Amino acid sequence: MKNVAESGLLQPKPGIPILSPDELETPPLSLGQLTWRRFRRHRMAIFGSVTLFLIIIYAFGGMLVFSEADANRTDTGNALQPPSREHPYGTDTIGRDILARTIYGGQISIIIGLTAMVMEVILGVSIGSIAGFFGGKIDSFLMRMTEAMLIIPQIFLLLVIARIWAQSIPNLKLMGRTFSGSVLVIVFVIGITSWPYLARIVRAQFLSVKENDYILAARATGTSTRDIIIRHILPNSSAPIIVSATLSVAAAITLEAYISFLGLGVRPPTATWGNMLEGAYNYIETAWWLWFFPGMLIALTVLSINFLGDGLRDALDPHSRAA
Amino acid sequence: MTRYIIRRLLQAIPLLLIISIILFFLMQNMGDPLATMGGRKVTKPEDRLRLARQLGLDKPGCVQYVYWLIGNDWTKPIGEIPEPNAGIFTPIIQCLDPRNYIDSENPGVRKGVLRGDWGISLVNRQPVTKVIGERLGNTLLLMVTAETVIILGALLIGIYSALHQYTAIDNIITATTFILYSMPVFFFALLAMYLFSVNFRRWGLPYLPTVGMFEPGAGQTPSQVAWHMILPVATLSFGFIAGYSRYIRSTMLETLGQDYVRTAKAKGLPHPEVIYIHALKNAALPIVTLVALDLPFLLGGAIVTERIFGWPGMGRLFLDHVSRTDTAVVMGIMMMIAVAVIVFQIIADVTYAWLDPRIRYK
């Protein structure tokens, strides 16, 4: 920078931004590189990504240290032990090791967050794009449904729907582990109640993107409707979808925790961060470690995902190129 | 404007109908209300049958919905209706058959929601309006206080950090609001309880109560209730204060850069007048919309808050009655919330137009 300025190539004039040498000499950056560059400068987003990475290592790497049997072994003689060398996070009401349970619970919580997000994205993107692209009667019907869903607070809907299937799905065996069938119920319930926000965002994007000239050009060259939606409009509306999908992972993890906390969530033996908190407020005076560790992990995960989403929003938005 | 309001209200009617249909059919599948009726088990099959008939639970779902909506006092016994044998289509055929709607062995007394009869709670045989009415006041008290705290707190923090942009305190506020914004309600509640009740008591400081609305010994005096409200209100409002104060900070910064603020400063108006009259009035406008749109979230937060702090409000009522499949009460609560949310959205739009003369609705 200094050399270039001295050589007279770039006289610093007030008010005119100076390009750094690499911006002058390197070929133009691709969209991905630009995005990464803007993301990198977002300090909170980097902090969020690193923390999230550590949490994922904690939840999935912890499998190597503790077996699932450790997480589910009850030892009533050792119930409600405060944190000690043997049990760094203490033990719960029936003597299970909380550290091991936060590891296995974390896996389930993260998986619930991700799968619920996938479901939400599939539903939200398809409903939003159909409504936005076709307009007319389909649009007004779908949007009335969306509005109806938005008016009832999500947690109320969740509780009612979770109750429908609360006990009805048997345990699943997968990769040598037993999962409570309620995990599926929770994923499904969160997925089908979360899509309205995304559908609205996607619809708004479609309404504006479909007016562009390149869509007209695509139509003129005989591109099929399916290709116009999937290859032309969707990629150009991806930024808000990615951001909202990221944030909805955090929302799904929190929602799982809410319903489990209220006693309608994932059933034992499967641990989640949420159901470890169930009934913990009865021990608020006697056993703080019961709720502190899972609660802290939820808060930390949600915080870092929110930071990540915030960074992605800034990085993916072409209007904030200066940042 | 009047026409606009009328149109919005008319649009709300089909919306409420859709909502009520969705909810009613969700409730239908929620489980057997007879299984846990009033806490006792109905074991004999003939008792079950009699009870189901008495409560109208033997009818197809759509008939139950119609009775819920417009009542069944117009029905009369018309004798045996053969059950169609159509496999999975049986419920649909039953729904389409008008005889199923007219027939009722004992002419009903229900008037239906449209005539103001919300039905009888299965749990305690009280009218739904009475059951909800007993709890409504408590929830409203919590909500109104929380909303006041949210708006005042967000305005104070937002204005302060906008006026002191990029100072150390602004940065601390930014970091704190980010953390609070991401913190789940229950975790905040548990932390607050642990610090302000458990540990304050341990340290011999004046400590806050954790559950209920008042000490049983002291009775329900205003000071008792206020004292018991501190933690629930803080729990309900912290996340919203964090979110709104960020919002106000950014709108405030934007407004402070406007020409009219420069003009106000240039003509020598006192500093507070420029900030509070010229800038704030414009910056705080969007919060009207924000408050109305976030009402569902506030209500959602209330469920968790009321459960943790044992506050006898509608959230706890909802949880109790959902777990017993009490359709009438749960429907009542949900529909009330739906109406409240829609009305608030209309009020917000109207207020916004009234406050901002640039907006005109037709």
Structure description:
The complex is a heterodimer of chains A (323) and B (362). Chain A is built from 14 helices and two strands. Chain A is an all-alpha fold. Chain A has a two-stranded antiparallel sheet. Mean pLDDT of chain A is 83; it is low at 4-8. The A-B interface holds A 44, 144-145, 147-148, 150-157, 159-161, 163-164, 166, 250, 254, 257-258, 261-262, 277, 280-281, 284-285, 288, 291-292, 295-296, 298-299, 302-303, 306-307 and B 14-15, 18-19, 22-23, 26-27, 29-31, 178-179, 181-187, 189-191, 193-194, 197-198, 210, 296-297, 299-300, 303-304, 307-308, 318-319, 322-323, 325, 330, 333-334, 337-338, 341-342.
In brief, what are we looking at here?
The complex is a heterodimer of chains A (323) and B (362). Chain A is mostly helical and 323 residues long.
Name some characteristics of this structure:
heterodimer, A: 323 residues, mainly alpha, two-stranded antiparallel ribbon, 14 helices, 2 strands, 66% helix, globular, B: 362 residues, 68% helix
Which helices and strands, and how do they pair?
The complex is a heterodimer of chains A (323) and B (362).
Chain A: H1 2-6, H2 21-25, H3 31-40, H4 43-61, H5 68-72, H6 98-134, H7 136-151, H8 154-164, E1 172-174, E2 177-179, H9 182-209, H10 213-220, H11 225-236, H12 238-261, H13 273-276, H14 289-316
Antiparallel strand pairs in A: 1-2
Helix pairs in contact in A: 3-14, 4-6, 4-14, 6-7, 6-9, 6-12, 6-14, 7-9, 8-9, 9-12, 10-11, 12-14
Chain B: H1 2-28, H2 45-55, H3 61-70, H4 90-96, H5 99-102, H6 128-163, H7 168-182, H8 185-202, H9 222-256, H10 259-266, H11 271-283, H12 286-293, H13 295-309, H14 314-322, H15 327-355
